[in-house]
DENN domain-containing protein 5B (Characodon lateralis), 643 residues
Amino acid sequence: QAIERRLLKTDHTAIHPHLLDMRIGQGRHHPGYFPKLQADVLAQAHNTHKYSSRITASRRTEPRRTTVADLSGMDSEPKQKYTFTRRIIRQSKLLDLSPQAVSQTHREFVDGLLSECRLKTKRMLMERMGKECVELGQGEANITGLQENTLIHGLCDLLERTWGHGLQIKQGKSAIWSHLLHYQAAQEKMEAPADVPGLDQRLSDEGTLFTRGSLIQDMRFIQTMRDDLSEVIQARAWIHLALEKKMLSQHLKELLTNQELLRQLYKPHAFLLCEEEREQFLYHLLSLNTVDYLCFTRIFTSVSIPYRVIIIPMKKLSIAMATVNPWVCVSGELGDSGVRQIPKNAQEIFFQCKNLGRLSTLQMGVQENSGLLAKCLIDCVVVYNEITGHTYKFPCGRWLGKGVGDGSLERVLIGQLVSPGAEEEAGRWSGTPPELASPSQSVRTVLGSLGGRGRMHSAEVQEDLREAANNLVKHFHKPEQEKGNLTVLLCGEGGLVLALEKFLLHGFRSNRLFQRNVFVWDFVEKAVASLETNDQMGDLHGSTPPEGPPCDSLCRYVNAINTSLRNIGKEGKFQLFVCLGIRDRLLSQWFPLLAECPLTARTYEDGALLRDRAALHSLCRILQTLNDFSITLEAALVKGVDL
């Protein structure tokens, strides 16, 4: 509409080319030179538009006063009219060299920096909080990864302008990095007397705990990243790292504690020497600690990061770790660490490798020739990023070793980032807490019961299935930068694997007096063996055994998983079975085959979900909705299986 209004008030209308009434070449004319033209003919106005004279006159003369009639025009006209006037007034203020005018100009600039900091931090905070609400299922997404990077780069520019205001002498291309280098040099001079245990931390007047070495350590890490980084890139890397560690406000506050250095570098009117505004500036930056950023991890992907992996066994059986020599392989968004052997009689390992991004899975196992005594009950595995300070917890709660549990010599654990200071709530943040990841716990809640209680359990199981599928659908409809970890949605807490495991365990019949762990994979194996036997021998009662591509693919996949070189145990095999089936869009065809298998009637009670046609039909429809999406599995999940 604004463009249409502007077209109705055009300044100039071009006319068609035509011959002018002009005697070209009047007077002297030399070949090869452009002839003189008649100025009076060229000056004749051919545009008769009613607005042309007003706008042309306004361009040729000084800005005139605005009338009421002009203000009644379109919305953008006042801005265009006053722009030039404001520019003239601003220039006149800058040309006024009186002390009062200079002081007023500096005061306005300081207030402008503080106001811009307040607006930028508020925008970053609200946008990031909106994104986290979407991840929790609340609100609507209104920010993309590109917008987030733009906001962070805008914050870097603001910090550069703030640190560049009132400099005595500009040194280098980055004002904040130059200040950091001066601070580093001053601290290194004081390192010898200050190198005493217990002085690494000090408490500020306000009660904020500072890690004295942290700021300098971050600087040294940035300086060792690459030799060819410019000062501007180094400063931005330091800001990104401090923002991700939630230490930006603390680091800058520590940087500004050296008042002597500030007076050496800055003039009295500088922003950093205005105490009240400086404190407000730092408090605005402190508000960014309430949200989580992974800006350094996701932007500086080629840097080498040191990681620490700690295996935590069950306390009662911690002595069993002495008989195990485990290995680990950590995987993230950007790659994996490769197999890392943990030293004998040790529970942790420290290694350095290329940035793995946000961590998602961890493979852990023991050597196949370790013997029957090599077994331990693992509580969880913790991975710590030594640079960003992020802690990832990978709950296990299961045995590792031969002849115990499901006999697994290798496990794939799913983990998530643990919020700082929330270790006591780690179960809420972790991917597979022991009470949900262990089959024995699931068996106690869903092992068959009839009547009203059984119906209640079946409703809960079906609701978990719908919720798991709905989370996957929402994942694929999100923008690329806002998608979470697909592996967590498949194999983590509340994921599709656990929901299908509950579905198959519902109404499972067992006649054992002392109940041992029931594994779904045992039923899948026996069902496939039954299908293969019926296919070879035929049904003795005259019924036609199931045939066709779905049956062939089911048998082929189960046999391939069983003959795999990986010793992932029965739980790991069922997890791989579900992941491969959903990836290749075959899972919705396999469950009807399992339901029609003769073994099912002997294994499940009458009220089991697998024997309920309505529940089975609902399950197949849910799984078919996932066939519209292309699912790519992590290498850690499908390693060793070529299908």
Remarks:
- The first strand starts at residue 201 and ends at 203.
- Residues 54-74, 134-143, 194-213, 421-456 have pLDDT under 50 and may be disordered.
